[in-house]
Design a protein that fits this description.
Number of domains: 2
Largest sheet: 8 strands, antiparallel
Distance between the termini: 22 Å
Strand content: 25-35%
Shape: elongated
Order of helices and strands: EHEEHEEHEEHEHHHH
Structural class: alpha+beta
Number of helices: 8
Radius of gyration: 19 Å
Number of strands: 8
Length: about 230
C-alpha cells in the first residue's frame, strides 16, 4: 500500500469552483461517495455561509440535491466533475477529506499498487494539471493480519485482482487457495479494513493543511503536469 498526495488544477467546469471563487473561500470536502460512476455525494462545512451556499447549490444545474446535516454542514449530490470517479475506478481510497479552492484540489489517497497510482495520474491529466506532491509506502506490522488474511491479500495482488480491469476474479483466486468464494472475500475484506483503518489512523485528522497545501491552494500555479 502507498499513501499519495495529489495537487490537481481542474480544467473542467465545476460548481465547487464557482462557489469558492464567488465567496473567496476554501473548504474541505468529506464523506465522498461515487454513485453509478456519474454522480457523487459529499459533505462540506459552510460555516457562516449556509444560506448563501444552499441558494447557490440549489440553482446549479450540476446539483441534484442539497440536504442540511446540521447547522453548518451540507450534504450535496451532484454530477461528478471527473476526479473522484477516476480515483475510485483505479482502486484509490480517499482519506478523510480533500480540499477545494477555485479550480484547485488537494487529494490525499491510499492505493494498493503503484500501477493504480500511475493510472490515476494519467487519467486526471485528461481533466487538469496534476502534481504528485508526496508518495510514501505503507508497511503494515506483520501482527496486523492473520496468516490467512496475509495469504489472501498477497494472492489477490499477485493474481491481478486489483488491476483494472481485473485479471482474476475472487472465485478463481479462492479456488487457487482451496477455500470457498465466500471465505476468500471475508478474509480479503477484513484484511482491507484493517490495513486501511491503520493507514488512515496514522495520519493527522486535525484538518490543518501543510504549508505546501496552502501555497498551492492560494493559486501560486507552481505545479503543472509534473
Amino acid at each position: 500500500m502507498f499513501r499519495a498526495k495529489l495537487y490537481l488544477d481542474l480544467q473542467t467546469d465545476c460548481v465547487l469552483s464557482e462557489v469558492t471563487n464567488r465567496w473567496n473561500t476554501t473548504f474541505a470536502v468529506s464523506h465522498e461517495e461515487v454513485i453509478e460512476d456519474e454522480h457523487i455525494t459529499f459533505v462540506i462545512d459552510a460555516e457562516d455561509k449556509v444560506e448563501e451556499f444552499v441558494d447557490s447549490f440549489e440553482t446549479a444545474a450540476q446539483v441534484s440535491s442539497v440536504e442540511r446535516v446540521d447547522e453548518t454542514h451540507l450534504k450535496i449530490t451532484k454530477r461528478a466533475c471527473g476526479a473522484l470517479p477516476v480515483i475510485r475506478s483505479n482502486h484509490g481510497m480517499m482519506e478523510w477529506w480533500d480540499q477545494v479552492n477555485g479550480t484547485q484540489r488537494v487529494f490525499d489517497i491510499v492505493v494498493f499498487r503503484r500501477s493504480d497510482l500511475r493510472n490515476i495520474v494519467a487519467e486526471l491529466r485528461e481533466i487538469g494539471s496534476v502534481h504528485l506532491a508526496q508518495l510514501t509506502p505503507y508497511r503494515a506490522s506483520e501482527t496486523l493480519l492473520s496468516d490467512r488474511q496475509a495469504e489472501v491479500v498477497e494472492t489477490a495482488l499477485q493474481g491481478g485482482y486489483y488491476e483494472w480491469p481485473r485479471e482474476a476474479d475472487a472465485e478463481t483466486l479462492a479456488a487457487d487457495l482451496d477455500i470457498s468464494h465466500t471465505t476468500f472475500l471475508e478474509h480479503l475484506r477484513k484484511a482491507e479494513r484493517t490495513l486501511l483503518e491503520t493507514a488512515l489512523n496514522q495520519n493527522n485528522r486535525s484538518g490543518v493543511s501543510s504549508p505546501e497545501d496552502r501555497q498551492f491552494m492560494l493559486g501560486s500555479g507552481a505545479h503543472a503536469d509534473d
